[in-house]
Structures are given as C-alpha cells and as structure tokens.
Design brief:
Length: 183
C-alpha cells in the first residue's frame, strides 16, 4: 500500500509540467510581454553581474586590456545564460500559475536555481580565463590549486553567490508575473 502511494506521488510529480490548465487561457500579448521581459531582464542581470565580477576578479594594477580579456567573454556567456534562465523562469511561472500567496515561494526556488546556474557558469569561466592569462602575484588565487581545482572552486563559489543573489530577484519577479497575469 505504501509503495503504491509513493509510486502514485512520483508519477503525479513527474506529470505536473505536462498537465494542461483547465479554464480560461492567458492573453497572448501579456504572455509575450512576460516572456520577453524576463528574457531581456535575465540577460541584462547576467551580463552586468558577471561582467562586473570578472572585471574586478583580476589584481589591482592589471592593464585594462587584460581586464577586458576576462570580462568581455564572461559577460557574453553569462548574458546568454541569463537570457535562457529568465525565459525558463517565465515559462515555469506561466505553466504553474502560482497564486499571489504561493508566488514568492516559487520565485525563491526558481531564483535560487537560476542564479546558481548563471553564477556557476560566469565565475567558473572568469577563473578559467583569468588564471592562465593574467599575471598575478604568488598566492593571489589562493592556495596552490591546480587549474581544474581553481575552475571547480570558481563554479562552486559562483553557484553559491549567484543562488544567493537569485533568491530575492526571483522572490520579486514571480509575484510581479502573478499579479500582472491575475493568477
């Protein structure tokens, strides 16, 4: 009996994203605005935060060309990741249709996951580019990490801080979507 209950719960949980919503349909123009706004907003946040982080990662006194060598590719990749994450958050919120009471909780979770993805990708790429290309004094990058260890630590640190930043962003964005679409 208990295993059947667990199997049924697992099946229903797996089917939730594919279930259609019964009732009124959402206005196409509002859905398009939400998807576009979240895509652009996610791209701008990823671009700005990861670009600034990559720019400030290198030691003081480093030439501007070396700073830009790290910051430009990181900002581009993090901007693209932010666009994908923003669209994913919008699509998930549109699919789940959270109530005004539930939307901050959903936003916290989605923001945490999305921020961790953007931060992990952006900071790992920053470290991956900066360590071999930027001249830094001995010990600047921390203990004697090997290159794969440094990139891995960059991913973990970026995922942590990105997730931490994503929590309030998601907690604000998803309720705005919920109020705008009248869930």
């Amino acid at each position: 009996m208990k295993s059947m209950r667990v199997a049924l719960c697992a099946l229903l949980t797996a089917l939730i994203p594919g279930l259609t919503v019964v009732g009124d349909t959402l206005p196409a123009d509002k859905v398009s605005r939400v998807q576009t706004g979240m895509t652009v907003g996610g791209a701008l946040l990823g671009l700005g935060i990861a670009g600034a982080t990559a720019f400030s990662l290198v030691p003081d006194g480093t030439a501007l060309a070396d700073r830009l060598l790290v910051a430009i590719p990181v900002a581009g990749v993090a901007g693209a990741a932010g666009a994908f994450v923003g669209r994913w958050i919008a699509d998930t919120a549109l699919k789940l249709r959270p109530s005004r009471l539930y939307s901050p909780l959903l936003g916290v979770g989605l923001g945490l996951i999305g921020g961790a993805v953007i931060g992990g990708i952006g900071f790992a790429l920053s470290v991956g580019i900066a360590v071999p290309t930027v001249d830094a004094p001995p010990g600047y990058w921390g203990r004697d990490f090997t290159y794969p260890q440094a990139v891995g630590m960059g991913f973990v640190a970026g995922a942590f801080w990105g997730g931490l930043i994503g929590i309030p962003v998601g907690a604000i964005a998803v309720p705005i979507i919920s109020i705008y679409l009248g869930f």
